[in-house]
Write a structure and sequence with these properties.
The chain has eight helices and no strands. Helix 4 packs antiparallel against helix 5. The two termini are 45 Å apart. With 207 residues, the protein is mostly helical.
């Protein structure tokens, strides 16, 4: 393209309009990154703080392992509600109250990913400082529960062998990190899908 044609397009209404669209798209991308980081960090902090509060109570016997799982998954749902609010903030503040399902899905999944990584890192910190014998104690709890429910010695021994194999795998930090991610990621995906389906409709909680 020669210089004269370049200036003609640039100074024309079409050129200015294109430039404005590029700037607007760039601003939206930056703002989206800011929103997903903020809401992802908030979600990660919530789920991590609840973990650091509830697990010592579980270790001390104030919360049983069964209730501990309930507390854990409830904390994930509470924390990942930030997915809904993050998508809504992006829709209302940057997209004039209108967002597509795919835009909402992308936003929610990134928030979920940030929160999930924070959750897995928090568990690694807890595991390596306080709860390195977690698998042994959980195994014993589960086997005691089986015995109380009338399981035979053969069934208990088979389950013990299965737990021992899992325990060896769990010592590998990469496998452990992946297993921890697998606890929270499905929760975030479900909440993201629900949030994206709801918030793509302008009439749902308009700004």
């Amino acid at each position: 393209m020669n210089r004269a044609l370049f200036f003609k397009i640039t100074l024309s209404g079409e050129g200015i309009s294109r430039f404005r669209r590029v700037i607007q798209a760039s601003k939206q991308k930056i703002t989206m990154k800011k929103i997903v980081i903020i809401y992802g960090l908030i979600a990660g902090i919530i789920v991590s703080v609840i973990m650091f509060i509830s697990l010592p109570l579980q270790e001390a016997g104030y919360i049983t392992y069964d209730y501990g799982m309930l507390v854990g998954y409830t904390s994930m749902v509470v924390a990942l509600s930030m997915v809904f609010f993050g998508i809504k903030t992006y829709r209302d503040q940057q997209l004039d109250g209108k967002i597509t399902f795919l835009q909402a899905l992308k936003t929610g999944l990134v928030i979920t990913a940030i929160a999930s990584v924070m959750y897995a890192i928090s568990w690694e910190v807890f595991y390596n400082t306080i709860a390195s014998d977690f698998m042994e104690r959980y195994t014993q709890h589960y086997l005691d529960k089986m015995a109380a429910n009338g399981a035979t010695a053969v069934e208990i021994d088979a389950q013990r062998a299965s737990f021992e194999s899992l325990g060896e795998m769990y010592k590998n930090p990469f496998i452990r990190f992946g297993m921890t991610l697998a606890e929270i990621l499905p929760v975030g995906v479900v909440i993201t899908l629900i949030s994206a389906a709801l918030l793509r409709k302008r009439e749902v909680l308009p700004a």
